[in-house]
Amino acid sequence: MRSPTELTAWQKLTEHKQEMASIEMKSLFEADPKRAEKYTTKAAGWTLDYAKNRANEKTLSLLNDLAKEAGLESAITGMFSGAHINNTEDRSVLHIALRASQAQETLMVDGVNVLEEVRSTLKQMEKFVAQLHSGEWKGHTGKTISDVVSIGIGGSYLGPKVVAEALTPYKKDDINVHFVANIDGSDITGKLKQLNPETTVFVISSKTFGTLETLSNANAARDWFLSNGGSEAAVSKHFAAVSSNVKKAVDFGMAEENIFPMWDWVGGRYSLWSAIGLPVAIAVGMENFYELLDGAHQMDEHFRTAPFEENLPVIMGALGVWYINFHNAQTHALIPYDHYLRAMPAHIQQLDMESNGKANLLNGDGVETDTGPIIWGGAGTNGQHAYHQLLHQGTRLVPVDFIAPLASHNPIGEHHTQLFANCLSQSQALMVGKTLEQAEQELRDAGATAEQVAKIAPHKVIKGNRPSNTLLTDKMTPATVGALIALYEHRTFVQGTIWGINSFDQWGVELGKVLGTDIFNRLVSDSDNSALDASTQALIKAFKKAQA
Ligand SMILES: O=P(O)(O)OC[C@H]1O[C@H](O)[C@H](O)[C@@H](O)[C@@H]1O
């Protein structure tokens, strides 16, 4: 297995980095009046402006060569044809099948047409969603359902929660959808306080049906139901499950027809398009869920067929590699200028960090390069009054993706124009910065003395030349939100492929789970802890003392 550092394009990029070291983005714009036009590309309702990057034609062409040399073309073909590209678990990676066009009839994987299973599950979802909204689905006392609580964690929580929130303007009024994830009892306790057991349905979302947090919360919900007028026989009217482990869900008390399947070829963090997205479908209706799938499919088709020079996930992925591996960027920020999309960074954080937080090549050899960055971010404009200081003047290079709709769902006053102006001005400020001369002049214009100018001006200097992408769409709709998330899924895959790692397993999560069970057992027993490290021993003692 080759390390990416052995690729010819990687070596050329290392040299090219030196050539680019003294070139400022500002001068690239001055030298090429067509730069913005050249470095703008569109797909699936999104326009990507990537002109504000430390890249010229040579950079982009070398990054393109890198992606090709790393085998991205065959990796894409492999993914779309159902090859077992998740090599450590020997599985296909087929979130793309969950949103395949209705025109496609077959996608055979290991002798099974997965599209048949996908479509019959969508039909099952349609029926369930329709029954809830029409009022046909009744609780055990004959009342219609007013609230649905989704219980899940990780990929069985973040994607659906973020998308349901992003699609707030499309929400149906008759049913409120809630999400519970944390094992901290405060999460479910707070939710249950607002609910009536006669009119509440719980959807337990867990691919494995073995996740501690989800099962603990599901049991708490069932206990609450049973101790507030419910009965074992009525559990099936108030509980549904999404899982690949049907037996465990049946053992819990679910009626088999209320168990929605999923498959081992869908990774948790890529699963919102499956029945794991049921809470979204309930919140916004099945027709909007189909629009969401269609938007993602449009991005899939773009990713699969567009030349790399115009391919949004490839461009964004390769530019990310440029900053991580050639400019030592440790983090990457996502800043949506859209209130409803404010939680998106948390979903992309899981998607990317669980996918590319890896230190081994596909064959198990250790990597020699940095891999996935720390993904973080939050809503613009709020962040401007918090962490943007570091983006502008901190010592670290943080590439940023700005994401904004051209039109708002809530066009009051000048709000949207102000919001959009802030989005543009941040990317502009990151690039142009402020020189010492400008800072000095600004102070003089404000009437500062020469002494004050000398003292303050250096603090006002902003070096600039900080890169960003801007992603624009006409409006946040189910289709454009679907396409946006699919874009980030494929961007993650592009980077994982360039680094030569498996983006689709997550072995690192296991150790914490195993040790968590061990420590839990120690907290509830009189075990001999002397073999543990002194710090853990002392912390266990503190907990036990507090419980005594
Ligand atoms: O859906 P579940 O099986 O309950 O898993 C929920 C989550 O837990 C795990 O720890 C994984 O790290 C996530 O990828 C997964 O989405």
TrEMBL record:
Cellular component, GO, one term: cytosol
Pathway field: Carbohydrate degradation; glycolysis; D-glyceraldehyde 3-phosphate and glycerone phosphate from D-glucose: step 2/4; Carbohydrate biosynthesis; gluconeogenesis
One Pfam family of this chain: PGI
Keywords: Cytoplasm, Gluconeogenesis, Glycolysis, Isomerase
GO BP terms, alphabetized: gluconeogenesis; glucose 6-phosphate metabolic process; glycolytic process
Coiled coil residues, start to end: none
Catalytic activity: alpha-D-glucose 6-phosphate = beta-D-fructose 6-phosphate
EC numbers for this chain: 5.3.1.9
Active-site annotation: E354 (proton donor), H385, K513
Annotated SUPFAM superfamilies: SIS domain
Top-level lineage group: Bacteria
Subcellular location: Cytoplasm
Known function: Catalyzes the reversible isomerization of glucose-6-phosphate to fructose-6-phosphate.
HAMAP family xrefs: G6P_isomerase (MF_00473)
Family indicated by similarity: Belongs to the GPI family.
Protein name per UniProt: Glucose-6-phosphate isomerase
